[in-house]
Amino acid sequence: MQVDFQHFLSHGGYKDEENDPLSGHLFNLDDVKWRNLRVKLTPTFTSGKMKMMFHTLADCSVGLKDLIDESSTGVDIKDVLSRFGTDVISSVAFGLECNSVKNPDVLFSYFGRRALEIDIWDNIKIFMQVMLPHRLLKAMKHKFTKTDVEKFFMKVIRETVEYREKNNIYRKDFMHLLLQLKNRGTVTDDTSITDESGKPKEIALNMNELAAQAFVFFMAGYETSSSTLSFALYELATNPDIQEKLRDEINSVLANHEGQMTYDAMMEMTYMEKVIHGKDTLF
Fold it and tell me: Could you tell me if 106 and 25 lie in one domain?
């Protein structure tokens, strides 16, 4: 696969960037367009960029801790972790603090669930995308993304972009990196959104492409993160010896970092990584 990867660039996923702009994300692109976008997005997921965003994630965890501490009867952990995932992704990818851990009825949480709901009509649309030629689907103006979901996310992303560009807002998150790609055509380590001339130096993302990448960031992380954490917590609950060993490692590492959960502290928790990977082999 690595040697002959040039033969596997086309993913075969249906997309119509004109009628269904949120479908134009990395997972659906083909050939040269996929390669070019992948090259541009790869720097956004380096260890340095992850370290930059870690503080935002840690801030979201405070609300989760408070909710669990305040609960006297226990919580539905899958639901709570889904809401926690919504808070993390909305903050990191969109720069919004929706606090759905404490308020599950916020719009961002609602439309996140709505985007992942699959009904009979959605199954029919999936069948059509698999069986019918994509040219015919485009002629039919076929779209998979629900209209209300598209309107909500496009509005949120457009307003966020316009506000940050107008006020030159810098925030250590994924949206800032996408804004650099939109206005500069590349990701850099400085805080600027544009270069000195204000013009892109390379082929840049347009608004729809930026929105699609932010949307798929949400879709890819929403259910997977909460499921991973739920399964891991279940295994820890049924294996108290492993749970105790992991707790000892966490306390030991945090003692070396003044009790603060930092990116560097997390990277030192090697047993935690083994626990997560061990869970992956079971489910």
Answer: yes
